[in-house]
Design goal:
six-stranded parallel sheet; 11 helices; three-stranded antiparallel sheet; about 40% helix; about 280 residues; alpha/beta; binds adenosine monophosphate; 9 strands
Length: about 280
């Protein structure tokens, strides 16, 4: 596996792949890689001639400076894992390689058609502007045939689909296919996340209640209304000492707007487990 840190090097490698008519898979990540990331990477390696994995903690998608500083980083372990998984290229640039000073300090403009007005977008103003900024830049640089994203970040996945299929950027990325990958969970049900590394052993055990309640809510959905299930999820998670729900929204899977039916619905939750902000979701 080759590690690349400059755009110029990346562009010339992509050019060579294209000249040989190789299909390219891209997995964008922020590093501190775990088995959840590995599930996306393995799929890309299987489905494409060449796989690029970007490892870049994108500063423009953090609305909270402290969260950016505390975000776990482990480049050496990431490189080892990607090498084992059969990745061809790891792209790990510094922020100044990706952005000019101006780009770093101005909000990237994009028409989200309202998809950013709810949940993560509402709680983290500007977050998705940074996500679209970095992902679109990676798409321009790598020109992938397929790009892999996890359903763990459900709203992000929706916004990436919008960017490729419905926005003014439609068609910009050629025949790029966005591949949705299921949430990878630990044996105890907790959705794997780089942020889990910040949990103490006790918090890790407490955090398991998030997915436990989400799974339980599927059974509740057979008997109760959307608003009743919503309330039960919030109350049950909040009743666990050490957990505090920021939001739990049951929304339509495509529009992300609140819905009063479970058909085509997804329930998205954000929970503080001690100081660590965790997200998870469940499809009904
Ligand atoms: P991140 O490094 O957190 O930005 O994640 C990079 C990609 O991996 C995103 O598309 C995430 O949705 C995906 N991802 C992270 N954790 C998981 C997981 N537990 N299961 C599936 N995909 C995941």
């Amino acid at each position: 596996m080759q590690i690349i840190s400059t755009k110029q090097e990346l562009l010339s490698i992509v050019e060579a792949c294209k000249a040989q008519h190789q299909t390219i898979g891209l997995v964008p990540t922020m590093g501190a890689l775990h088995q959840g990331h590995a599930s996306l990477v393995t799929r890309s390696v299987k489905e494409n001639d060449v796989t690029f994995v970007s490892v870049f903690v994108n500063p423009t998608q953090f609305n909270n400076k402290e969260d950016l500083v505390k975000y776990p980083r482990n480049a050496a372990a990431d490189a080892d894992l990607l090498q084992q998984l059969g990745v061809n290229y790891m792209f790990a640039p510094q922020p100044e390689e990706m952005y000019s000073d101006e780009e770093m300090n101005t909000t990237f403009r994009f028409d989200f058609a309202g998809l950013d007005a709810v949940m993560e977008g509402k709680m983290r103003p500007g977050h998705f502007n940074g996500v679209v900024q970095v992902v679109s830049r990676l798409f321009y640089l790598v020109r992938p045939n397929r790009a892999y994203f996890g359903e763990k970040d459900f709203q992000q996945l929706c916004i990436i689909h919008h960017m490729v299929e419905r926005s003014s950027l439609k068609g910009t990325f050629g025949d790029l296919q966005i591949v949705d990958c299921p949430i990878y969970r630990g044996a105890d049900g907790l959705a794997l996340s780089s942020r889990n590394a910040r949990l103490s052993e006790e918090e890790r055990e407490t955090a398991v209640n998030i997915s436990r309640v989400l799974f339980l809510s599927r059974a509740w959905a057979k008997k109760y209304s959307v608003s009743e299930v919503q309330q039960m999820v919030v109350d049950t998670i909040n009743s666990v000492p050490g957990l505090e729900v920021e939001y739990y929204e049951i929304v339509d899977r495509t529009t992300l707007q609140p819905t009063d039916t479970f058909a085509h619905a997804v329930g998205c939750v954000t929970v503080y487990c001690g100081p660590v902000r965790l997200i998870d979701n469940i499809q009904y």
